Amino acid sequence: MREAVVEHGFSKQRQPFEEANVSKAIVVLPEHRVKQITGRKGNQDLATAMYNAYVDGASLAEIAAAYGRTRQAVFSAFKRRGWPMRPHLRYGQDNHFYRGGARNQKSANHKVEKAIQRGSLVPESCEQCGEDSGVYAHHDDYNKPLAVRWLCVRCHFEWHEKNTAIE
What we know:
This protein is α+β, with helices and mostly antiparallel strands. The protein has 2 domains: about 5-80, no CATH class; about 105-160, no CATH class. Helices cover about 35% and strands about 15% of the residues. The chain contains 6 helices and 4 strands. The strands form 2 sheets. Strands 1-2 form a two-stranded antiparallel sheet. It has a two-stranded antiparallel ribbon with strand order 3-4. About 10% of the residues are buried.
């Protein structure tokens, strides 16, 4: 005699198919039977619902927690079905390194290096303590690339602890 596992609220019971009210009950098949019937493990409707949540902006970890799966299982389900993933590139305010616009620091440092090589800018001793060795060109404002102050490592570090350069 064929039996079905029928869910009633939170309990599961085995009943013969004739007695089980299949129209109102959920018949739960073992996972190996799902694979035999569908040709693959899993539920297409569940995967579609998870992917729709992903498209709406939820992360893989959030989806995995909501559906009781691992993040890797959710990722594999999407990849197996050939569904496109969001790009990992973040620009502007979405990037955690964003500091509010174009940065002139790299350009300013490059211009100082070239000016020193040409001889138009000559390193001096530290303006704070008078140290002669290990002196760096410090920019208070990166928009003025050749307006530098010469500071040693210690004084430069102390300045940046208390201040922020204009970018």
